[in-house]
Specification:
Number of domains: 2
Largest sheet: 6 strands, mixed
Strand order of the largest sheet: 1-6-5-4-3-2
Order of helices and strands: HHHEHHEEHEEEH
Helix content: 25-40%
Strand content: 5-15%
Mean pLDDT: 79
Oligomer: single chain
Distance between the termini: 79 Å
Number of strands: 6
C-alpha cells in the first residue's frame, strides 16, 4: 500500500504535467498564424503571372528600361526636333491617352484600399492622382514612356499586371515606368519598367519591395541589363 506522501506526490506531479500542456485552441491558433502569409508576401502572390518578369542589375537606374525601349522602335534616337508637327501632335495625344488609362487603372485598383495616416497629409490631394500615386504628364521627347509614382508599400504584382494590360494597340511598344516612393513629396526611389511583354525590376529594389523569390531566367533575346 502506498503511503500518503507517495499519493500526494503523484497528484502534484500529475497536476504539474497538466498545466504544461498547450490548450488545443492555442495550438490551433499558433499553427494558423504560421500558415498564414504576411501582408507583404500576399502583395506578390501573383508575381509568376507577370509576363516576361526579369530582375535586372543596372549600372544606373534607367539603363535596362532604356535598352528595352530602344529595341522596340525603328528610330530609337529620334529627337523632338526631327518630328513633324503632325507627329508631335499624335505623340502628345498618345501620351495623354495612356496617362488617362493609367489614372483610371490606379483609381479602380485603390478604390477600397484604406489610406494610411501618413498619406492623408493636407495638400497631397492637389498633387496626387490617387492617395497612393502621382503622375507627371509632361514629355520632352519621343521616349514612349509614361511615369507613375507609387507608394512603395502599396505596390503589388496585381497592379503591375493591371498596368501591363494597358499596353495594347498604339501603346504596345510603350513603357509605363513605375517609380516607387516612401516620401510624401513623392520623391522617387526605384524604377520598374513595365512593357507589354516584360517587366524589369531592379535587383536592388527587392529588399525594399519585400520580394523574396528566385530570379527568373531571362529569354535569350532579352538579356539586356540582366545576369
Amino acid at each position: 500500500m502506498k503511503s500518503c506522501f507517495e499519493v500526494l506526490l503523484f497528484c502534484v506531479l500529475l497536476l504539474s504535467s497538466g498545466c504544461r500542456e498547450t490548450p488545443p485552441e492555442a495550438a490551433n491558433s499558433s499553427a494558423e498564424s504560421q500558415a498564414m502569409p504576411s501582408a507583404s508576401s500576399r502583395r506578390w502572390v501573383t508575381l509568376d503571372q507577370v509576363a516576361g518578369l526579369q530582375f535586372v542589375e543596372d549600372s544606373y537606374d534607367h539603363e535596362s528600361i532604356e535598352l528595352a525601349g530602344k529595341r522596340r522602335h525603328e528610330n530609337p534616337d529620334l529627337d523632338l526636333a526631327d518630328m513633324s508637327e503632325a507627329e508631335i501632335k499624335r505623340y502628345g495625344e498618345l501620351n495623354g491617352l495612356l496617362h488617362r488609362k493609367m489614372e483610371e487603372c490606379v483609381n479602380n485598383h485603390f478604390r477600397d484600399t484604406p489610406v494610411p495616416e501618413i498619406l492623408q497629409k493636407e495638400g497631397l490631394a492637389d498633387k496626387t492622382v490617387s492617395p497612393f500615386t502621382y503622375q507627371n504628364w509632361d514629355w520632352y521627347g519621343p521616349s514612349y514612356e509614361c511615369y507613375l509614382v507609387v507608394w512603395e508599400d502599396a505596390l503589388s504584382s496585381k497592379l503591375l499586371i493591371e498596368l501591363q494590360s494597358l499596353l495594347t494597340g498604339d501603346h504596345r511598344d510603350w513603357c509605363i515606368v513605375v517609380c516607387t516612393t516612401r516620401q510624401t513629396d513623392f520623391e522617387t526611389n526605384h524604377e520598374i519598367g513595365v512593357f507589354s511583354d516584360e517587366v524589369l525590376i531592379p535587383k536592388s529594389a527587392t529588399p525594399d519591395l519585400k520580394i523574396s523569390r528566385q530570379t527568373p531566367k531571362a529569354p535569350p533575346d532579352h538579356q539586356g541589363g540582366s545576369e
